[in-house]
Predict the 3D structure of the following.
Amino acid sequence: MAKTKKTVFFCQNCGYESAKWMGQCPGCKEWNTFVEETVLPKTSGRGSTVGKTENKPVSLNQIDIQEDTRLGSGLEELDRVLGGGIVQGSLVLVGGDPGIGKSTLLLQMCRYLSQKHIKALYISGEESLRQIKLRARRIGDFTDDLLLLCETNLQMIEHIIENQAPQLVIIDSIQTLYNEEVSSPPGSVSQVRESTSVLLQTAKGKGVTIFIVGHVTKEGNVAGPRVLEHMVDTVLYFEGDRHASYRILRAVKNRFGSTNEIGVFEMRESGLEEVKNPSEFLLDGRPEDASGSIVACSMEGTRPILIEIQALVCNTNFGIPRRTAAGTDFNRVNLLMAVLEKRLGMHLSNCDAYVNIAGGIKISEPAIDLGIVLAVISSHQNRAIPDHVIAFGEVGLSGEIRAVNMSEQRVAEAKKLGFRTVILPKVSLKTLEGVKGIRLLGVSSLREVMGLGRSNGGSPHMPSDFTYS
């Protein structure tokens, strides 16, 4: 007898299945996330056990761990984000906006691996072989160890992977695959979930590393059910403005490494090029002797990154002042300005304030609080901060300057790039006693920050001799 189709409703956020439509998902408590799909009922019964091997539990001491299970991708920035390289048998999801460079990044990785005589299979469901060839021509020369395939049938892809036995497989993209056993159209919740489940079994069962490209929604999340991110081993997001040259690769989930590392790339005509020193790249073009500008240091994993914080404070023309924050938390900027007004007596309630992290990078670490405060003060008093000064530290609600982690790495990065003076929390000075060649100014409160450069201190105005030379 033919199988009868039935209609079910899936939550696009968490994959919760329901027989009827509901306004709120019982699983994730999100509203208006249910979509209707037609599926075939699964066959019941235990099935035959002939030819199947019994899976027995083993003790932890019987498991052998090999240290050489990671494979270099040829891109140091990508290896940093992955935790040291590609893990054999892992399933990696790469998401990002259209045209951001996901396919280019994976194709460059395949080029390096093919030159090392590592067999790679690039499967595309969106582009033809000619289109892939045109992109590959810009990147460089490839060897015969890279195989290309245009296919969307999941059963056919499984068969080809089994016959070719590649070490690395690229799926571009997961939204174009379809499983014949699922009656829903490609890109639906059922198809994406079932296709990912099949690829997960292939990766773990055959020891093949699989990279999956996923489209993102207008909110910036990977399209499909949220359970998709729970199934894979690693989730990478490729960020950046399409009209800018830089790209940032972040890991929001990583079972084999840290999620705090980032990789910085620059898009060029020949493909993506690694940015080995992001601080120098982000500070390029910084204005000289301009008020409202200062350099702060942020930590992304184990990598210190120097960024320029810009602030513009001016009298408002309306009854309600306007506040704008680009690249940092808007609410955090409002909090810091309230601290300045309460603790230092600065009249900012009738001023418009605009705070920007130059270069378009997004930073939310509390260590840039002191940089934001100094930039706002500099713009409000219209006094420039010397170019050789850098600052980092967290600002509390009572105006105290709190310590941040990894002060040694931050100071070393500032010294390497030629900065001569560092304003930092006073409690961090005891860990930097052996640092030479750079001046360290420890502060414990905002009033000490305002009093730098003169002996009386405690002034609510920017000192006229605001210099650190």
Residues 44-51, 453-465 have pLDDT under 50 and may be disordered. The chain has eleven helices and 23 strands.
